[in-house]
Automatic annotation (TrEMBL):
<comment type="similarity">
    <text>Belongs to the short-chain dehydrogenases/reductases (SDR) family.</text>
</comment>
<dbReference type="InterPro" id="IPR057326">
    <property type="entry name" value="KR_dom"/>
</dbReference>
<feature type="domain" description="Ketoreductase">
    <location>
        <begin position="6"/>
        <end position="179"/>
    </location>
</feature>
<protein>
    <submittedName>
        <fullName>SDR family NAD(P)-dependent oxidoreductase</fullName>
    </submittedName>
</protein>
<dbReference type="Pfam" id="PF00106">
    <property type="entry name" value="adh_short"/>
</dbReference>
<dbReference type="InterPro" id="IPR036291">
    <property type="entry name" value="NAD(P)-bd_dom_sf"/>
</dbReference>
<dbReference type="InterPro" id="IPR020904">
    <property type="entry name" value="Sc_DH/Rdtase_CS"/>
</dbReference>
<keyword id="KW-0560">Oxidoreductase</keyword>
<dbReference type="InterPro" id="IPR002347">
    <property type="entry name" value="SDR_fam"/>
</dbReference>
């Protein structure tokens, strides 16, 4: 589908990749609903993009219900799930609350929100975008996050097979220069973080071309292809990446 003129929802629009996507949709999608938890940052994005802000926590039933009700009011054809949290560190140091938080924000929330919006998106013959991560192929030191993103990628694959009338795109970025990296304690020089707007541009191009998956930067796709075609080689190389 083309986002031009289609009503759209962008979650996680108060920061980073979601904010960049909202800025690119401004004036193209009408109306545009944006969500986030931080009212100040979300309202600033809404003011700059002419969007309808919905402040709330998507890991709660009430938070998701508020978003669904805004979509009922304004319509929805394009859904971009960009909200998410990271977690890094050895799995031996992960506590129960962190596992719950990551799975709730990165897996349960987008699946539940998609379920609630699915009838409207199907009617609109719309498009759903899941911002996953290259961690979906399995990254050491990010086991829970990798599991959530891999499950989200597979959820998208299943939806795509089940409902050809709805476009489904999974976005798999590497490191992206957003506040997410500092919160997660990213301290590597490789791969170099890309700007959030580069992910936003690739995402909207993928929607227009109805691409199943898009890796940002594109060369990261090699890792996924090697993992699928030669898992033994992948396992030997992965610790060095
Ligand atoms: N940055 C990277 O290197 C990178 C790489 C690969 C994939 N990703 C994925 O890209 C997506 C966007 O990340 P980003 O880099 O843009 O991070 P970010 O700048 O930290 O933004 C995350 C967004 O998600 C929202 N959010 C988080 N938990 C939420 C919750 N429980 N309810 C509602 N909103 C919630 C945040 O809202 P508030 O700020 O208002 O709380 C914020 O708008 C995430 O799914 C992340 O996993 C990021």
């Amino acid at each position: 589908m083309t986002p031009d003129g289609a009503p759209a929802l962008v979650t996680g629009a108060s920061s980073g990749i979601g904010a960049a996507i909202a800025h690119r949709l401004a004036g193209r999608s009408a109306p545009l609903v944006v969500t986030g938890r931080d009212a100040g940052r979300l309202n600033a994005v809404a003011a700059a993009t002419g969007a309808h802000p919905v402040v709330g926590d998507l890991t709660t039933t009430a938070g998701r219900a508020a978003v669904v009700s805004a979509c009922d009011e304004h319509g929805v054809g394009l859904v971009v799930h960009a909200a998410g949290i990271g977690a890094a560190g050895p799995f031996s140091g992960v506590d129960e609350a962190e596992v719950d938080a990551v799975l709730a924000a990165d897996l349960v929330a987008p699946v539940q929100l998609t379920r609630a919006l699915w009838p409207a998106v199907r009617r609109a013959r719309g498009h759903v975008v899941f911002v996953a991560s290259i961690a979906a192929i399995g990254v050491a030191g990010e086991a829970t996050y990798s599991a959530a993103k891999a499950a989200l990628r597979t959820f998208a694959d299943a939806l795509r097979l089940e409902e050809p009338a709805v476009g489904v795109t999974t976005v798999l970025p590497g490191a992206v220069d957003t506040p997410f990296l500092a919160r997660r304690g990213y301290d590597r020089s490789f791969p170099r973080p890309v700007p959030a707007d580069r992910v936003a541009a690739a995402t909207l191009r993928a929607v227009e071309r109805d691409r199943a998956e898009v890796f940002v930067p594109r060369w990261l796709q090699v890792a996924s292809v090697v993992q699928g075609a030669a898992p033994g080689v992948f396992r030997r190389c992965a610790p060095r990446l």
